[in-house]
Inverse folding.
C-alpha cells in the first residue's frame, strides 16, 4: 500500500506532530501540507515563529518529523488532481456527511471492503479540526471514509482519526 496523507488547514502543531509519528509508525509514504497547516522548517515564517512551531511539532512527533518524507503545496486542488492522474484514489476522512459520493464506514466488518475499494495507491485528505474538509474539495474526492461514533461526541481528534484510518487502509 502506497499511502499519502494530505493535511489541509490543520490548526494544531501538536496534531501535526502526532500525525507525523503515526505516519512513520504505519509506513505512510509521504505527508503533504497545504493551507495554513503548521509544518517543519516553514520558511514562510519568521525565524522565532519557525523555531516555536518546530518545537511544538517535535514535542508530539518525537523525531518522526525527521524521517517521514514531506512537502508543502500552495494549490491543493491541483496537487490532488496531479496525484489522481498518477493513479491514486483520493479518499477523504470525514464524519456527518451529506454527499453523493460513496461513503465507507470503518467498522471492523468493513475493513476488507475498504481495502478492496481502494487502489494500492491512496491519498487520504484530512481537514480542519472543527469544520473538516473544505466543501470545495468534495468534487475531487473519490470516496469518503467515516469512523462511526457510538458515544455522545460526534468525532475523534484528527490525529486519532488519522491513526485509525491509516491502520485500516494499510491492513495492519
Amino acid at each position: 500500500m502506497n499511502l499519502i496523507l494530505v493535511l489541509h488547514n490543520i490548526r494544531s502543531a501538536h496534531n501535526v506532530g502526532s500525525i507525523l509519528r503515526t505516519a512513520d509508525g504505519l509506513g505512510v509514504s509521504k505527508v503533504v501540507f497545504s493551507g495554513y497547516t503548521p509544518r517543519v522548517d516553514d520558511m514562510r515564517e519568521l525565524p522565532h515563529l519557525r523555531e516555536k512551531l518546530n518545537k511544538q511539532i517535535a514535542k508530539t512527533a518525537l523525531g518522526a518529523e525527521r524521517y517521514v518524507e514531506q512537502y508543502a503545496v500552495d494549490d491543493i486542488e491541483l496537487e490532488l488532481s496531479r496525484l489522481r492522474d498518477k493513479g491514486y484514489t483520493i479518499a477523504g476522512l470525514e464524519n456527518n456527511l451529506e454527499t453523493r459520493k460513496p461513503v465507507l464506514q470503518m467498522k471492523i466488518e468493513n475493513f476488507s471492503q475498504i481495502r478492496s475499494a481502494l487502489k494500492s495507491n491512496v491519498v487520504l485528505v484530512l481537514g480542519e479540526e472543527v469544520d473538516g474538509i473544505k466543501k470545495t474539495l468534495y468534487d475531487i474526492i473519490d470516496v469518503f471514509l467515516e469512523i462511526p461514533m457510538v458515544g455522545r461526541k460526534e468525532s475523534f481528534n484528527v490525529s486519532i482519526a488519522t491513526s485509525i484510518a491509516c491502520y485500516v487502509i494499510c491492513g495492519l
Residues 129 and 157 are 7 Å apart (CA to CA). The chain has a mean pLDDT of 91.
